[in-house]
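User: I'm writing a tutorial on reading structure tokens. Could you give me a worked example: one chain, its sequence, then its tokens, then a sentence or two explaining what the tokens reveal?
Assistant: Sure. Here is the example chain.
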Amino acid sequence: MRISIEPVWQSAVRLGAVVFDGLANRDADPRLDQPLALAATTARAGVRDADIGAVRAMYRRFGIDPTKTRPSSEALLRRVRKGDPLPRVNSLVDISNWCSLEFQLPYGLYDLKHVRGDIILRGGRAGEEYPGIRKQAVHVAGRPTLVDDDGPFGNPTSDSARTMVTTDTHRALVMLYVPRAVSERVLADHLETTASRVLAIVGGSEVSRAIVR
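And here are its predicted structure tokens:
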């Protein structure tokens, strides 16, 4: 599986990708109770404006108003600042949300059983859409979207029902959508932290890791 970025988007975004296999995903894992609660408390205490601003600037480079179509990371932050806990879905999703909230970067999480062929981040074409997770159709025309042989399935705001991760997921791709303003060294650190948390809680093995430019 090859992951690439359409040239027109390369000046705005990098992708950080980790592939895992042999995962033992669970509905809930009590080992996550304390770290998720701490992450929410820390986020309420304050997140640097620069961290939020970098992703907002990336969205503006995409031609998207981030106050109307929010990055998934900022949507999590707003939820937590209202006093709500981080949502609990399953172990893999919970870890992804934990990392996204802490690093203030949009994360995507995809069951590779339902991804076919290579993946490219490209602009959505007229009429392209996909059923979202617990929502109506996500329209991606003119917006950056992940596409495989079967069509669009993810973006930095909302992912598809087709590739969503469940407790039946054993092979998964974790994707970070990272502004070019964030250094590759910082991105590499985020990938390392993400991978170590997944392996510690969900088990399995890391198959590959890449920074896509």
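What the tokens reveal: The chain has a mean pLDDT of 96. Residues 121 and 146 are 4 Å apart (CA to CA).
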